[in-house]
Structure formats: C-alpha cells, structure tokens
Design brief:
- By secondary structure, this protein is an alpha/beta fold.
- The protein has helices at about 30-45, 75-85, 105-115, 160-165, 175-180, 200-210, 250-260, 265-270, 285-295, 315-330, 350; strands at about 1-10, 25, 30, 50, 65-70, 90-95, 120-125, 130-135, 140, 150, 155, 185-190, 210-225, 230, 235, 240, 300-310, 335-340, 355-365.
- It folds into two domains: about 1-205, Alpha-Beta Complex (Spore Coat Polysaccharide Biosynthesis Protein SpsA, Chain A); about 210-365, 60s Ribosomal Protein L30, Chain: A, CATH 3.30.1330.50.
- Strands 1, 4, 5, 6, 7, 10, 11 and 12 form an eight-stranded mixed β-sheet that branches. A five-stranded mixed β-sheet has the order 16-13-19-17-18.
- Helix 7 (about 250-260) runs parallel beside helix 9.
- It is elongated.
- Bound molecules: zinc ion.
C-alpha cells in the first residue's frame, strides 16, 4: 500500500484572462504545474504521482508518473483519477491544485503525519479580513474566527474518498465539501500563506515580483570656476565638474543604473546633450522623469550601492550629506543607500584631481 499525489491540471482557468491555461503558464522559468510536481517528487513521500490534464504533457522524465485525462469540472477530474487508481493498492491520496505552485515539503510531511490518525486531513488558513455574507439583500457579519479558508493538498484515505465520490453526482469545488456534506470528520491543520492559489494574472505578477539590476558609470572633468555638485549636494571645492548639466557624476551614474534595471537605454537617450533644453540643468531635476518611469511601471528601488572615485574631496566627510540628499531625491529610506569612497593612489587624471568618477549598482523590484 502506498500514497499517491494527484496533481489537478485540467482546470479551464475561467478567471485567468489568458489564452494559455494558468497551469501551463511560465513561472520562475518553468510551467506552473511543474513546481508542485517537483516538490512532491523531492519529498520522497509518494510511490505514485498522477497528473490529470486535458493538455498533452511532454513525456516527463520522472519515474512512476502517469498522466490521465481530466473531466470538464474539477470533481470530474478527481473522479477520473480515483477510478484510475482503483486497483493500484493506494492507501492515501493527496489531491493538489496545480495553481498552487509554492507547496512546501514541510506541509506535505505535516499532512502525512496527521493521516496516521485521521482519514481526512485538509490545510486551511484563518481569515485576516473581516467577513460578511449575503442572504437575499441582507448583508450579515460573520466572525472571522469562524472562517476556514481551505487550501490543497487535501488528503484522504483512498477507499473512503472513492466510496463518497461513487455516490456523489453534484458539482463540488473541493473534496472537503464532499466530506462535510456526508457529515464525515475532517482534521483541519494550519496551511501555509505562501501556498496560495493563482486565480488571476495579478496573482501571478505578485508571486513573480522579479528583481532587476542595473549598473551605472560616469566621469567628468574638474574645471575651475564651477560649483561642485555630488549627489545633489553643493560641496565646497577648488573646482567643479564640467558638463552639459552641473556634471553631478553620482546622479548621472544612478540614473544610468536605474535605466539599466528597467531596460530603457541610458541617460543620453533621455537627455540628449545636443538639446539646448537640458543645458545647465541641475542633475537632481533629471531624476524626476526617471522616477516617474519607475512609478508608472510599478518598479521600486530595493537598494543602491555607490562607489565615488576621487582623490578629493574626502568622501567620509561628505557621505552623510550625500546620502541624506539622495534619500530625499529618490524618496527612499537612507538605509537603502550605501556610499563608498575610493581613491586611486594619485594615479591618472582622477589622482591629479582633474576628474571625478562614479559607479553605481541599483536593484529594483516590480
Ligand atoms: Zn555625466
């Protein structure tokens, strides 16, 4: 007698507005359904794994995996699976929705443990929201302590579940419903928040929250009779940075880093140096369109690391001022910005205080 993991992939994804069924959409470099499949395999808890799918699934290079056709509704797919397993000496079945890719081995183990003492084990979450329910036109309050949000995998003694399914001919949305209808006992255990179900494209985007990186570099020549600006701060110094704008290498490198992370070319594309419009512009004002671009595309800054390369001024003396200024200009917390000073052993034009350079790495999330 062994346990079987049943992965339901036959859903039609009516609420998921995409041509491709959500189970097959790419999430973290592979089809969504393969994530929980991999977890089930790696748990080593199952002698048998059964995928229920109406789409042809390429020969999967895992042992003991069978693919069968699903039904038009979820409960019909489960029914097909149970029917298929009828004579396969199965003790327990774990029925899981492929739309929950972040299933953990730990949850599988906890469910398995409870199956030693129970014939039905279902994970659930407590409601964090206040709950109302509607009867005709009347809306009532329901104590959220009384609410159980059920997840999958839902786990059952095979024979018992099969028996209940045989006598059922109603549409049910999960196996727990069938048990409750038949007044059978279910052991509910706390599930995992990250094991949530992807129902809409927004859910998928939320899960993805990818990280992007951008690198920026800039160098400007130091010239007499110009004010020095670094990171938007006016620094008392014998020279200033020559440039079309105020020559603020820190801000220019940050802009390039941010544009790199969102894959929108570079500062020169956004502010062509042959355009008089930007002549003598304060660099801090050049940040505005870049930050708007980030905001409009739902990007936010994780952190920024800056190397300011100069012999003088001493970075340690101006570090806090620059970080405070960048924090304000970028509207991010100070502790997300790091500034390192780097001298060049008096080598080259930077060493001779004829230029200042800056390099930056930016990390963004969406
Ligand atoms: Zn520049």
């Amino acid at each position: 007698m062994s346990d079987c993991f049943i992965l339901l992939c036959a859903g039609k994804s009516k609420r998921f507005k995409s041509k491709l069924n959500k189970q097959f959409i790419t999430y973290k470099n592979k089809p969504l359904f393969e994530h929980s499949l991999k977890t089930a395999i790696e748990s080593k808890l199952f002698k048998k794994i059964l995928i229920v799918s109406n789409k042809k699934i390429k020969k999967i290079s895992y042992k003991n995996i069978n693919v069968i056709k699903g039904g038009a509704e979820r409960h019909l797919s489960t029914q097909n699976a149970l029917q298929y397993l009828k004579n396969k000496k199965i003790r327990n079945v774990f029925i899981h929705d492929a739309a929950r890719p972040n299933l953990s081995i730990n949850l599988l183990k906890r469910l398995k443990k409870e199956l030693k003492k129970n014939t039905a084990v279902v994970p659930y979450l407590k409601s964090e929201n206040s709950v109302k329910y509607k009867i005709k036109n009347e809306i009532n309050n329901l104590s959220r302590k009384k609410v159980l949000l059920t997840q999958t995998p839902q786990c059952f003694n095979f024979q018992e579940l099969f028996g209940l399914y045989k006598s059922n001919n109603e549409k049910i949305t999960d196996e727990a419903t069938l048990y409750l209808k038949n007044k059978k006992k279910i052991k509910f255990i706390l599930g995992e928040k990250k094991n949530f179900k992807i129902t809409t494209i927004d859910d998928l985007n939320y899960l993805k929250s990818e990280i992007y990186y951008g690198i920026g570099f800039d160098i400007h020549r130091l010239v007499k009779n110009k004010k020095l600006f670094l990171g938007g701060v006016k620094i008392p110094f014998h020279s200033g940075l020559k440039g079309h704008s105020d020559g603020d290498v820190v801000i220019h490198a940050i802009i390039d880093g941010l544009l790199g992370a969102v894959r929108k070319c570079d500062i020169g594309t956004l502010f062509p140096s042959n355009s008089n419009k930007f002549k003598n512009i304060r660099s801090k004002n050049m940040l505005t369109p870049v930050l708007n671009l980030l905001r409009d595309n739902n990007f936010f800054i994780n952190n920024i690391d800056v190397n300011l390369i100069c012999e003088n001024p001493k970075v340690s003396k101006i570090r806090n001022k620059i970080i405070n200024s960048l924090s304000k200009l970028l509207s991010i917390n100070k502790n997300l910005i790091n500034l390192k000073g780097k001298t060049v052993e008096k080598l080259g034009i930077i060493g001779k205080e004829q230029a200042i350079a800056c390099e930056v790495i930016c990390s963004l999330s969406r």
